Amino acid sequence: MPFIDLPPQLKERVVCSISAAVKYAVPANIVLAVAEKEAGKPGQWVRNSNGTHDVGPMQFNTSYLSDLARYGITADDVAAAGCYPFDLAAWRIRGHLKNDKGDLWSKAANYHSRTPRYNAVYRSDLRVKAAKWADWLEGRFVTVDVTKAGAARSLPATQVSVSVQATRLPAVAAPAAAKRQIKAGREVPEYVPRKLIRNDQP
Q1: Does residue 3 fall inside a structural domain?
Q2: Could you tell me if residue 115 is inside a domain?
Q3: Whose CA is closest to 155, among 178, 137, 175, 132?
Q4: Which residue of 61, 137, 188, 201 lies most exposed, with the fewest beta carbons within 10 A?
Q5: Rounded CA separation 84/200 (Å)
Q6: Does a structural domain hold residue 1?
Q7: Angle, helices 28-38/8-23, rounded to nearest 10 degrees
Q8: What is the pLDDT of residue 100?
């Protein structure tokens, strides 16, 4: 079982993040890293200094609620328990990755803020968390490095009962700076976007 080593309080976050990533065709590592960074709880409202609130498990900012309202989605939906808030977050992350300017990490960090100084801090930590989740996923699932055309699937270190097939992810260009960086005298692990592959066939 791929989730057996997770503490019970993390299982919903991880399962819902992976499910949402597959559903919206975004790298699972990014959704998992954002979920870890946001670390909200169902029903939670956190007031920001600018008067907005961050809501629910994925700390969706209320400034986005007007965009969601046209689809009939309310603050209660964003704050709910279960996987729906993760679906909304993955949908939003996909929009940033497809439509925003900048490198992969700046686009993903737009989930938190487009303000350069806040984006940079979030971006830096997101990369570290995503690298950790990439390794975690690769040890449990078949994954594909989406930055390489025709990349071979990586097989999990341990066998799990997950059936998979190859699918294509919309191209997300890896930044030129996607090499390992040295910061403060230590090597920062570089994230390689990976996509979980789902198979609905036997």
Answers
A1: no
A2: yes
A3: 137
A4: 201
A5: 21
A6: no
A7: 140
A8: 94
Strand 53-55 relative to strand 45-47, pairing:
antiparallel
DSSP per-residue string spanning 91-124: HHHHHHHHH--S-HHHHHHTTT-SSHHHHHHHHH
Report the amino acid identity of residue 194. Answer: R
149: left (phi over 0), alpha (psi -120 to 50) or beta: beta
Q: Which of 12-26, 65-79, 179-193 has the lowest mean pLDDT?
A: 179-193
Helix, strand, coil share (%) of the chain residues, nearest 5: 40, 10, 50
- Residue 22: which CATH number? 1.10.530
Number of folded domains that form the chain: 1
User: What is the residue range of 55's domain?
Assistant: 8-196
d(CA 122, CA 108): 9
Radius of gyration of the chain (CA): 17
User: Which of helix, strand or coil describes residue 83?
Assistant: coil
